[in-house]
Amino acid sequence: MPRQDQENTVKANLWRTELTDMVEEIDRSMNSYRDLVKMGQIDDNEREGVLENIGRNERKLEEDYMTGKSEVGEKLLDPDGAICSDIIRLGKELAHLKRQQELDAIKSMKKKPSASSVSSNRSSNATTIERNRSESPSRIPVQPTAEKYRRRNSRPSPAPSPQLQKNTVSQAPVKKVQPNSRKSSRKGSLTPQKSRDIAPNVVAQQSLADSGFDSRVTSKP
Hints:
- The chain is mainly alpha-helical.
- It has helices at 3-39, 44-72, 74-77, 82-132, 145-153, 162-170, 179-187, 195-205.
- It has a domain at 3-124: Methane Monooxygenase Hydroxylase, Chain G, domain 1 (Up-down Bundle), CATH 1.20.58.
- Helix 1 runs antiparallel to helix 2 (44-72), helix 1 (3-39) runs parallel beside helix 4 (82-132) and helix 2 packs antiparallel against helix 4 (82-132).
């Protein structure tokens, strides 16, 4: 075998090994991506980023394949066409994953406005109910005992009615004025003023026996 052919064979083997490793790496990335989507552990933005990374690796695979084929020839690089078939398969799978991601993103965008409208309707209904709700007995604040006592004592006393004042004035005792008491005191009268009030009571307290009256003695005509 000529030396040039040996060098090309060695290069073809190196290229083939490198390309095969790249195909396997892209396959693992796609499988991990599918598992994350299935378990719901990745959102739309993350999905888009992962697919872009896989797309860059897939383009790098195509470029390296073309470079290796130009150096050693397709017959030495990929004699059975396995690498070429893998590149085509990965391109189709990547395109399918991108379309699925775009459809899911559109669905999620349609759900967000509906969810926000429902939440806004709920908040508006709650506000309307709160405004129309009357204050129930359970919502009335309970006043402490000290506050009740203070308010009760701080209330002004009600003013008496005119009729009550009239009755009160009419029932007041009237003091009798004795005109002779002052004159008699000037002349030196020995009779006290209060003797006239005491005398009837003294007479009333004396019995007939004390006065010497005898019921058995009859008076002669």
